[in-house]
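Objective 1b. Sequence-to-structure analysis of Deoxyribonuclease TATDN1.
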Amino acid sequence: MAQCAEAATPDSPKVTRTWFFLGNLARDVTVEDIIKFFNFEVEWRQDLARVELINDKHNRPKGHGFIGVPRYLTDRVMEFHERDFHGRKLKVERAKAGRYLKMTNRQFVGIGHGVHVSTSKQILVHPKPDMSSWPHVIDIGANLAHASFTKDLPRILNNAKVVGVQKIIVTGTSLKTSYSAQKLTQEHTDYLYFTAGVHPHDAVTWNDDVAKRIEKLCEDPACVAVGETGLDFERNFSPQDVQQTVFEKQIQLACKLKKPLFVHERKAFDDVLRLLVKYKKDLPPTVIHCFGGTDVQLETYLENGFYIGLTGSVFRDTQQHGPLQILIDKLMPLDKLMIETDSPFLFPDIKRFLKNYAAKQLYAKSDIKSKFDNLERLLKTYCKGHRNEPCTLAVTNQIIAILMGLEPEEVAKATTDNAMSFFRLT
């Protein structure tokens, strides 16, 4: 058994992790796929678990990696051995210290969540494409307070600026991350802004003291929205009745402060809509963050005046009437659209996107093919492994434009204007 005790973040305890070898991985498997498969998202968000995928010297995935978890999760990890994962039988075994060190060679590319490891002592760097003419965009939701961004945030922000990301809104998902987001905005004024709120996953942490502190954070001029708040009935990390109570409390706060509302909804459309409509008379501008619903749900949101946030997750959509088809059918009005990365999650994996039937039909067109090839090169140049970063927003903007049959400049201008007005940015 190989154990690795890593330095904790300033606000978290030191964690001793047990490491497991993951073998027989499909080449297109991402860190996010592994997180969802093992269902350890809470542990990742709290910086208790880590995953590492192994690349060769050309930065290509080798089909195996490592997962490090707190000791109390070791038995659960072994339960996934021989389970079907992306069309293969996953191999899970305790990592031996010698094997772990030899295979990783301790040459880390990136840090924290989404770490990719290279066996090469030299990291090959290709010439970066000229992005100076790309249109300006605004990332309305990036989890830059996440522990995986602690050590290389300057590089991340610089890359974002290079590809045209004009401003970034740092998402607060708990009291702790809201404070961290506030601190980041103080260090990067006029470029970073933040939201303050409690995510439905963390609804069980809500109490009177948290409510007072969140309200105080929302009074900061750099805080541009209440949230991330909402309902998540897919994972139910907090009981549904608790989620609804806490969501309603934050709706009331947004109404009181007349501060925009940043809403998360997953498998809870009816209840989210019911609670929002209940306060429609006093409800401030509201955005449905990371929209993943159907065309019917979209129409209902729009009828109620809500804005829609789209991320790289649209590239993975396989619903018959989901966001991908909505864009192709041109059902998304530009005057209600904003774009975001939700980094470090939801990496815009173009290869996976092209596996979708509708996308393949677009890709078959020669002019579209060259555009996709250039976007994939951009991702490889600016991003570390498959950890999502704000710089990928440039790719999301370009692909949304391709799907809608519009020029990237038109989508960028509309979404940027919407963000500036919605969040009252300066």
